Amino acid sequence: MRMRQMPSVEIGPGQTVAFKPGGLHLMLINLKQPLRQGDRFPLIVKLDKAGDIHVEVTVLSVGAKGPSS
To answer: Is the distance from CB of 19 to CB of 34 less than 8 angstroms?
Structure first.
């Protein structure tokens, strides 16, 4: 397995994309402070055609199952 930066992820009409460990995921860089388990913060996902989507991120422990797992 190799991590590589992708400038964009294409999502076709009616399709969904899951960001999760072992697959596509977001890497947050240049953070002003370390993230701690239980922290919550807003994140804006910018989509070319659908505009901005505002989500709230909750920091889980390493290896934790996500809410839909």
So the answer is: no
Contacts of 39 (CB under 8 A, 6+ apart): 58, 59
pLDDT for 17-56, tens place per residue? 888 777 888 888 899 999 999 999 999 988 888 899 999 9
The number of beta carbons lying within 10 Å of the beta carbon of residue 24 is 11
pLDDT at 66 over 70: no
